[in-house]
From TrEMBL:
It comes from the Eukaryota. Keywords: Glycoprotein, Hydrolase, Iron, Metal-binding, Secreted, Signal, Zinc. It comes from Flemingia macrophylla. Belongs to the metallophosphoesterase superfamily. Purple acid phosphatase family. GO terms for molecular function: acid phosphatase activity; metal ion binding. This is Purple acid phosphatase. GO terms for cellular component: extracellular region. It is an enzyme of class 3 (hydrolase). Fe cation 1 binds at D42, D75, Y78, H244.
Amino acid sequence: MAGLGLWMAFICVCLVSVSALLQRLEHPVKADGSLSLVVIGDWGRKGTYNQSEVSTQMGRVAAKLNIDFVVSTGDNFYDDGLTGIDDPAFENSFSKIYTAKSLQKQWYNVLGNHDYRGDVEAQLNPILQNIDPRWICQRSFIVDTEIAEFFFVDTTPFVDKYFLTPKEHKYDWRGVLPREKYLSELLKDLEIALKDSSANWKIVVGHHPVRSIGHHGDTQELIRQLLPILEANNVDMYINGHDHCLEHISSTSSQIQFLTSGGGSKAWKGDIDKERRDGVKFYYDGQGFMSLELEQNNAKVVYYDIFGEVLHAVNLFKGLRSVSAI
């Protein structure tokens, strides 16, 4: 019976349109029009580095919130992605770790830079849904939930150093080259989709941060190429991973809230830029995850550590464009 319920939940997710790079998926909201989810990033380490502990607390919070789906901000499989569709890391880092009943919902995943070091086509292959039907991973796509639209963006190809100075790493650029054409079409499709969106909340998800005071810091390529589009189209939140921490930074020039959830496993203690504090509301250099609850006119973001303790909470009020931290 549980399997039937799971299948019925997943069948509600349907493809409704296709553009050059952005497929649009629909996901239903709750009967009262609200939506809740959890967000995790930088997690795939076969349960090590407290990945299993984070999973346990995610399951508890997800049950309490009765979440609708899970968002992954990338770096799904360390250190070098998947080797193929039959790589046991898929089950050992995903299916066998996130076992709570409350997490048996759709997972929407973007690729991180570590995923690009493996067989990218494997992670994108729908055959993985035969192993675990929760798995949806595409380069860039849209999830339409009526109350909000989530714009998932493939950020790794934006970053120059992966092409110019890859060091000993090899990246799977199939489907990305020629790079300039790929990025141009992606930005164009994203801009059109954002302009056309009538959703109450516009939320963009990528792996790399736009703003961060963690190990990697700001991603300059995204500041130059992506941020102007986000600001011009009234995006409410940009959610990312990459930096192995939890943080909340409010834009000083727009309404955008920059939300990092990259604490799914290995964290970097003490790796913080203490000089750049403009807009910083919260920073935690440890493992954990984030939840998001959405209603028509308000949203609540909460960060949790590996013990399930609340570290930081943010209330966003639509229309008033105000932010209150708890």
